[in-house]
């Protein structure tokens, strides 16, 4: 595991954008699962502003680690956020964008997306393998859309599951631990003082860390990176 700490969220975004560029330049086709959340949004803006020409977008395939069950134009849509801050500004073939259809019946869509992963991604250990999975960390310890009250979804034998937000009841489609932990690389992007306690619990295996889905992230044969700003890292420095 590598823990990278930068002074500000913008610096996290800059450094991570360079890391992503390196990965995108390696290999013939690169499969990346994106995340929703406030830190990825800044990364997307950084990629759009300063990495448009640096990244060979035509060989980058984009997927989502989770999606809210809403239409793509809805303000909650992770795809919609990505489209607004990144996709609309770069030259990427439409065929390389593999969004989760939040507007469809969730159970049917979870099955469709699992089949799409099975068809599109190379396999390792007979499970689809992303080159990179980007994850956020919720203040309750959730990651992707696996929340603490639904830890069983992390251990599902399926590649995708339908989850429910604990407070709003909003349905979401999420990748499971099976496919997330099979990635070649996983990067957590975590910023802000609100995340400090959970980052500390997870990285130092303290408190209730076992109840946090994010503590189950451990790529089977890959690399795990934590990109933190100083605020999120306040408990570990
Ligand atoms: C989502 C996310 C989720 C997110 C965390 C952190 O769609 O909700 O994928 O896992 O990354 O909740 O979000 P913030 O960066 O906004 O705190």
Q: Would you kindly provide a brief summary of this structure?
A:
The chain has 237 residues and is an alpha/beta fold.
Kindly describe this structure.
Helix 1 crosses helix 2 (38-50). The model has no long low-confidence stretch (mean pLDDT 97). It is built from six helices and eleven strands. It has a single domain (2-195, 208-229), classed as 3-Layer(aba) Sandwich (Rossmann fold). It has helices spanning 9-25, 38-50, 78-85, 106-120, 177-180, 196-203; strands spanning 2-6, 30-34, 60-64, 66-68, 123-124, 127-128, 132-135, 160-164, 171-175, 185-190, 223-229. Helix 2 (38-50) links the parallel strand 2 and strand 3. A six-stranded parallel β-sheet has the order 1-11-10-7-2-3, with helices on one face. Strands 4-9-8 form a three-stranded antiparallel β-sheet. A two-stranded antiparallel ribbon has the order 5-6. The protein is of the alpha/beta class. It is globular and about 45 Å long. The structure holds 6-phosphogluconic acid. 6-phosphogluconic acid binds next to helix 2.
């Amino acid at each position: 595991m590598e823990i990278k700490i930068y002074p500000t969220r913008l610096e996290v975004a800059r450094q991570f954008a360079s890391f992503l560029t390196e990965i995108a330049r390696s290999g013939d086709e690169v499969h990346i699962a994106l995340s929703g959340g406030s830190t990825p949004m800044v990364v997307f803006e950084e990629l759009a502003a300063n990495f448009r020409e640096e990244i060979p977008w035509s060989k980058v395939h984009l997927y989502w680690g989770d999606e809210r069950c809403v239409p793509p134009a809805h303000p909650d849509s992770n795809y919609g956020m990505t489209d607004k801050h990144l996709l609309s500004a770069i030259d990427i073939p439409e065929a390389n964008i593999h969004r989760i259809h939040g507007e469809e019946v969730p159970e049917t869509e979870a099955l469709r997306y699992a089949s799409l992963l099975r068809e599109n991604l190379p396999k390792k250990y007979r499970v689809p393998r992303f080159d990179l999975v980007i994850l956020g960390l919720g203040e309750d310890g959730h990651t992707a859309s696996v929340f603490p009250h639904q830890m069983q979804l992390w251990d599902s034998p399926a590649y995708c599951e339908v989850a429910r937000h604990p407070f709003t009841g909003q349905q979401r489609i999420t990748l499971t631990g099976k496919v997330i932990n099979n990635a070649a690389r996983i990067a957590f992007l975590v910023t802000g003082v609100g995340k400090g306690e959970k980052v500390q619990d997870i990285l130092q295996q303290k408190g209730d860390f076992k109840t946090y889905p994010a503590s189950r992230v451990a790529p089977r044969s890959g690399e795990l990176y934590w990109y933190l700003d100083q605020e999120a890292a306040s408990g570990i420095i």
